[in-house]
């Protein structure tokens, strides 16, 4: 509608200034439906069932069934308890996500003034239809998308829709090109925005889901992507179960060909499968995420979706809003030039409608500036009586007042320098345009102020002549701590792109102040992206630091393009315009002071609206990522050991070195008491000095695979030769008991070594402080293992062991501990010697 004149818009909508008839309004209501945001919601039953369809959950359920089949009720109950708890948590967050669209419905007041059949009346907002004539004034929330027919001094806050931090002047008489972006459509009002000043009469042209906010709501229904951790574990689960089934099937086949008892072989295979599926991993991951969430809460970050805690540590891009996150979200006088200091102060105080309670953000900023300059503006208003005023005029872009102080009449005026220059009866101050342009190039919004002494009140503003007394530049200033946070993020290998609805100069200025924009980086407008393919846009974004005049669709597309190339994207925002991007981002971060819709669409809410809080949260997220990676290495190492050990013995015709029940017991006294302590491990070094690691690499990548393979082979091969030797000197029952005890202690050794990346003997005392809780877990395991070996060995096919026999039980654990220590020292020397590393690569 912005491309049509008011008369053309009325004609196209078959409407008039007299408004619709009640009958016509009812017909259109039937045709267009209620003026509310309607969306289809997935049934709660389907949402609930969907939580249990992931491959990892299916693996766990199979493992639980097998545990019940073996008579292990405890493991079965634990496994199914994990599945149900995880499912309920996921179900809860799905329901919360559905609430994000509903929150948009509450953004407008329930009643609105309309003209119908030539009379003014109030109707429910949901009853508005295209063609309705709507009356709006200061403080009203716009109830639908409206083409202005008449407007007087209209100023609108559109930050929730466009992100523009400055109020927008609106005019009914303007006709704009069809391709005018939404933030420049000065002749239209959009649902959810707020009238700050003035009055308006307009015709409704879009309601409900056809409004701009309605289009945003449609994108909100897009499914939020699973967290990187969830995707990594999902892929790992599928691969791991396939590997296990192949190996165990192969072992059973060999055993049958060797003439072993099929029933015993199947019993062994099932026990090995139950043990090898790391059913404790989801519990440990949940503990790690909960611990992280609690720590983040103390740092003013509220986590709504637990996997989001880990996503922080993997983030490669932060697409940050400007207003309220990087800046204060509050205008401030940044700079001024005075040609008559006294008159400039008087004009700022008297040609101003703001009060202590609020008003136009620009005028409020002027009062705060006067207070900083120790000017008593309240006193000035008392001694100067306002006799006449010319309200802010969007056409002339100025406001003027005439006051009396007992010394005659005084005209004070403020507005655009272009407007005030036309009213000057004398030459402009020297270099006024130079000063104006210098401020504008810094991204400041510049107001000019004028003064004149009058003999009488003029008939119109055109008759008033004034002189320029000063210029004032406004800026939404950066928050404290943001600049250092940006530098920290850069050192951590995280790119920050500031995406805002503000103009290019303002956005670029703020970005420079905080270090987001630097020499060589690009600052583009949203419209610059339209002609680029996704591939071209991705390569451009690698150099972009600021995207100005961005629409919700632009922000949404940026996130999707980055994700398509494997980037992990965190998005911050507080307005409805941010919702589509928040919804599809790997991590949506809303501001506590933002709209409810933004908070509902996000996975995390920060209580202190500051980019520094987000960067600090990333530090915490990296610690959690590292700890989850460590526990994965530990759990898979112990599983790889058991499979290697049993495979070597079975293939070479030896008796099984571990009974099925012993395998399950080992799982209890090692994994179950050690892995739960990993989330409490402290970080070694500075996490923000490292580059972000993709979750696939951090959790199941080459480095993890090599560690698991090394640990598993060392333990498996060493135990095989030990068991073979023991069979030659001891009865099978004794060799089995030594093997059983050695396997337990070896896994404790691996647990201690894998809590830290640095070598144990580099600084043993510091290493022990990394995680004191793991030694408590080992103590519990030691107590349980001692009970079995010395009190009730018969229940687990074991016998009492002498002191001499116990020496053999600690031989391989010591070897395992030292072997991992050697691996760590080699890696430490490799990382500490870059010169040698470069030489080796050549």
How would you describe this protein?
This protein folds into 4 domains: 1-221, Calcium-transporting ATPase, cytoplasmic transduction domain A (Distorted Sandwich), CATH 2.70.150; 240-293 and 619-841, Calcium-transporting ATPase, transmembrane domain, CATH 1.20.1110; 307-328 and 479-607, 3-Layer(aba) Sandwich (Rossmann fold); 332-475, Calcium-transporting ATPase, cytoplasmic domain N (3-Layer(aba) Sandwich). The protein has 31 helices and 21 strands. The chain has an 8-stranded mixed beta sheet with strand order 8-21-20-19-9-16-18-17, sandwiched between helices. The two termini are 65 Å apart. 51% of the residues are buried.
Q: Please tally the helical runs, counting DSSP H or I stretches of 4 or more residues.
A: 31
Shape: elongated
Strand share of the residues? 15-25%
Number of domains: 4
Assigned CATH class of the largest domain: Mainly Alpha
Please give the largest β-sheet: 8 strands, mixed
The CATH superfamily of the largest domain bears the name Calcium-transporting ATPase, transmembrane domain
What is the radius of gyration?
35 Å
Task: Measure the end-to-end span.
Answer: 65 Å
Subcellular location: Endomembrane system
GO molecular function: ATP binding; ATP hydrolysis activity
Domain Cation-transporting P-type ATPase N-terminal: 2-72
Transmembrane segments: 52-71, 77-95, 240-259, 265-294, 704-723, 729-752, 773-794, 806-822
